[in-house]
Design goal:
By secondary structure, this protein is of the alpha+beta class. Helices cover 51% and strands 14% of the residues. It has a 4-stranded mixed beta sheet. Helix 5 runs antiparallel to helix 6.
């Protein structure tokens, strides 16, 4: 199974034909924890780091117990994806992590890859424009917009927004004056307006 995750403009997870997304702002903490685990999926995240992140400003008599309860709620969110939640979130006594057994493909990774490939000096303007237009189509808005108040999201949002701004400039340079012909001119302006 391949796990597809969108983080630009919205947060959603899709496995096969099943998708979950945060359509309302109820139960924000479980969604935030899930976003964090997937964003930093290349490593196991120590329990202490998660406690500091989610209960730094709160007095809790039992933060480790609160984390276990929150993780239970996260696993409940994942149940409708058709894969056992314990296969998606790994756990040992001192850390949690997102699965490395299944392939996770994110829109952020694809967007970053397209942006970097479009910067290559050994491609012509037609190839560059093609890569740019594909990247523009992926950028549907801010990185994790419902969590942009989280301190860990801010630098990542800034990184992707800077990539996007450079992408728009490169698109125009590569012949993107023809954006209207590609039907993306209005979308570029709208997204740029929305994310500023």
């Amino acid at each position: 199974e391949i796990i597809y995750v969108n983080m630009l403009g919205e947060f959603s997870i899709t496995i096969g034909s099943q998708t979950i997304m945060d359509r309302n702002n109820q139960s924000k903490k479980p969604w935030s924890l899930l976003e964090y685990l997937i964003t930093f999926r290349d490593r196991n995240i120590p329990v202490e780091e998660l406690i500091d992140l989610f209960w730094k400003d709160e007095a809790s008599n039992n933060p480790a117990g609160a984390l276990k309860t929150l993780m239970f709620r996260v696993r409940k969110l994942l149940e409708s994806l058709g894969v056992p939640p314990q296969d998606l979130i790994t756990q040992n006594r001192k850390a949690y992590g997102w699965t490395k057994e299944l392939t996770t493909i994110t829109d952020t990774d694809r967007f970053e890859d397209l942006c970097l490939r479009s910067e290559a000096t050994d491609i012509n303007s037609e190839e560059c424009l093609s890569l740019c237009l594909e990247a523009v189509a992926l950028y549907k808005g801010n990185f994790l917009p419902k969590s942009e108040w989280e301190s860990w999201v801010v630098p990542i949002h800034t990184y992707y927004h800077t990539l996007y701004q450079n992408l728009i400039h490169r698109t125009r340079e590569a012949g993107g004056r023809d954006l209207v012909r590609h039907g993306l001119g209005h979308r570029v302006v709208r997204v740029e307006h929305d994310v500023l």
